[in-house]
Amino acid sequence: MNYTISKTLAFKMSALLASAPLLANVTPEERGLEIAVEVDLRDTGFGDTKAEMEMILANRHGETSTRQMAMKTLEVAGDGDKTLITFDQPRDVKGTAFLSFTHKIGADDQWLYLPALKRVKRIASNNKSGPFVGSEFAYEDLSSQEVEKYTYKFIRDEEFEDVSHHIVERYPVDRKSGYTRQIVWIDSDRYIVTKIDFYDRKDELLKTLTFEEYKQYLGKFWRADRMLMVNHQTGKNTELQWSNYQFENGYSSRDFDQRSLQNAR
Amino acid sequence: MRINFEAKKVWWLLGLLVAAPATILASEWSGYLTAEFRAFERSPLDGEQKGGASAAAIFESEFYHEWDNGDQAFEFIPYFRIDSHDEERDLIDIRELSYLLVHDDWEFRLGISKVFWGVAESQHLVDTINQTDLVANPDGEDKLGQPMLQTVYVSDYGDFSVFILPGFRERTFPGREGRLRSIPWVDTDNPIYESGDEDSHVDFAFRWSKYIGDFDIGFHYFRGTNRDPDFIPGLDSDGNPVLRPFYEQMDQVGLDLQYTREGWLWKLEALGRETSSKRYSSMVGGFEYTLYGLFDSSMDLGLLAEIHLDSRGLSAPNPFNRDLFAGGRLTWNDEADTSLIAGAFYDPENGSTLGRIEWERRLKNNYKLEIEAQKLTNIDSFDPFFSLRRDSFLQVSISRYY
Q1: Is B27 near chain A, with CB under 8 Å?
Q2: Does an H or E element contain A240, and which?
Q3: What are the tens digits of pLDDT across the range B79-136?
Q4: Rounded to an integer, what distance in angstroms lies between the CA atom of residue B60 and that of residue B355?
Q5: ipTM of this predicted complex?
Q6: Is residue A125 a part of any domain in this protein?
Q7: Which 379-398 residues of chain B touch chain A by CB within 8 A?
Q8: Is residue B191 reached through a cis peptide bond, with omega within 30 degrees of 0 on the bond before it?
Q9: For B115, which of A118, A129, A257 is closest by C-beta distance?
Q10: Which residues face B345 on adjacent strands?
């Protein structure tokens, strides 16, 4: 009996929510936030992941250099993710590792491990807009994307590469961000990001990031195998190729501490 | 029953032997080979020292294998160095030969290994466990492998480490023909130990460390052979005047602390030592502030300032008794990881100044070019750097990584 009631109630609630945009009393800001919350919700509960990444840096003359790293991520309920990145290539930085505790609000905590000295060094984390290992990706582009890090505005729905998309503009909350705004293309069926345009502090188009070759894991979570960041102002680009994505590794916070940073390979 | 168990063990061992080649294939070797050239600004002070430019070759290789999801690991790092001028710079060392076992909140490491403590940049004051390989580089960043049994317990109250250190490594010093040395030279063949166990005294250390919000804190206690020797004038086997290193027993307590906020890193290292002959304390403290995206580029500039104090004042055997350090670190954040570090130590009491600059850049994917220069100016006759006053140098090295 109770079950029937709650089910009916749930149905009514969802009907109410679904009709909300039609009632036109939802502002573009509310609609933008709603989409961002849905994107976040669909990826909630992934637990942990492990993957390998090849980073290919290309300059405007087409000359390339390659980096290889492994990345572990732990989902933290109620806060940003913890990540541990270990470098394998180029060889002179092999064994260097980077530990980051991202936070929904406030500065992240970051440590660097330098294998030649066996030294763990806490580093300043306000370098959000700086390039990550000389690439076109800034630290803020790669850190965990929390809803609270932006404010939002819904722009329109449109077909993009024959798939219906929501287009949402978002504005970084952190004053240290290198961007005034980002325009995000979100697949309106799967709620995954397929493209982001980044506008610099002068509000000029700086970079475009595209996500390709999405694969689904555990029947729920989507991860892109290929990410391409093109810098329109310098002509440089950086491609990330992800491989060997693994979920359910059973990681705990013990796998993301200063000790594990020293032992990581 | 017992026989069965023994038989099982034998089979297990045999299985391990059969499996070993496959395991070794899955493991990895990496390392580097460096060619290093040093040219000095002026001719040597002491006629025993060889003049002219010197060259050295350095080879370091790492074998690393982990299993059990990384909860067990074996690491081996042999190190070789050969120098054209100074035979005391020739060295074969095992930097690492250790087995690591991680079990939940416990970690055990057995073998020869290296441990770093501290936060400061211009001097590694509290970094006690490993002996300095001073001839590798006068900046003291290179360390020798130390035999140890290390046990770590990781908890919500911090990381607790206990070290049992059997065997002591002597500091390396430039030899009779080498540059960048004291006058007279240090006779490493005739060290003096306070302990009757000499270099086989078993040392002990305890460390606690934790990060609390923006603070990273570490405390330690060490009991055993002081890695920093005193020097006693003497004669070598040929009757030449030399300095004999004297290694005392000591009790040491130390602190390292860093506060990280915005672009600021505030740092403090302090220690107190007690030996049978004296009691003293020393500290290094300062800050590092980074300006990101310099002039709208992707370059960063880190500004560093540190103060060195030693309660022994002028009688301290190290050059950092009451000195100031100021420097900068310029990072290009480019694909070649180009960086430039420059800094100077200044003794306000006697005006002695030591300046140092290091530039490095990766070439292709596997090579690295490093240029280093050290300049001594206005060196006072009472300063520990006095015997190095003609040893300003320029060093160029190229390394091939694999």
Answers
A1: no
A2: strand A237-247
A3: 999 999 899 999 999 999 999 999 999 999 999 999 999 999 999 999 999 999 999 9
A4: 28
A5: 0.89
A6: yes
A7: none
A8: no
A9: A118
A10: B325, B354
B 34-63 → A contacts, CB under 8 A:
none
Specify if B228 maps to a domain.
yes
Find chain B residues with C-beta within 8 A of A90's C-beta. Answer: 362, 365-366, 401
Query: In sequence order, which residues have a C-beta less than 8 Å from that of residue B91 and are 6 or more positions away?
Result: B79, B80, B81, B133, B135, B136, B172
Identify the pLDDT of residue B233: 95
Nearest CA distance, A178 vs chain B (angstrom): 10
Residues of chain B in contact with residue A140, where contact means CB-CB under 8 angstroms, are none
Looking at the DSSP assignment, which residues form a beta bridge with residue B368? B362, B399
Domain that holds residue A142: 41-263
* Gyration radius of chain A's alpha carbons: 20
On chain B, the residues whose CB falls within 8 A of the CB of A264 are: 70
Query: From the CA of B276, how many Å to the nearest CA of chain A?
Result: 32
Local mean pLDDT, 10-residue blocks, chain B (402 residues) = 43 49 59 94 91 92 90 94 91 94 95 96 95 90 96 96 96 93 92 94 97 95 96 92 96 97 94 94 96 87 95 81 93 93 93 94 94 92 86 95 90
| Domain total of chain A | 1
Which residues constitute the domain of residue B163?
A: 27-401
Query: For residue B10, is it within any domain?
Result: no
Which CATH number characterizes residue A144's domain? 2.50.20.10
Q: How many domains does chain B have?
A: 1
In a domain, B180, yes or no: yes
Spell out which residues of chain B touch residue A94, defining contact as CB-CB under 8 Å. Answer: 30, 401
* Residue B170 belongs to a domain: yes
DSSP state of A106: S
Q: Classify residue A207: in a domain, yes or no.
A: yes
Q: What's the pLDDT tens digit per position in A114-154? A: 999 999 999 988 878 889 999 999 999 988 888 999 999 99
Q: Closest residue of A to B294, CA-based?
A: A130
What mean pLDDT comes out for the span A173-198? 94
CA distance B349 to chain A (A): 32
Q: How does the average pLDDT of chain A come out, rounded?
A: 89
**What are A74's two structure tokens?**
């732990």
Reduced to 3 states (helix: H, G, I; strand: E, B; else coil), residue A39 is helix
Q: What is the number of helices (H) and of strands (E) in chain A?
A: 4, 13
- Please name the member of B66, B152, B365 whose beta carbon is closest to the beta carbon of A65: B365
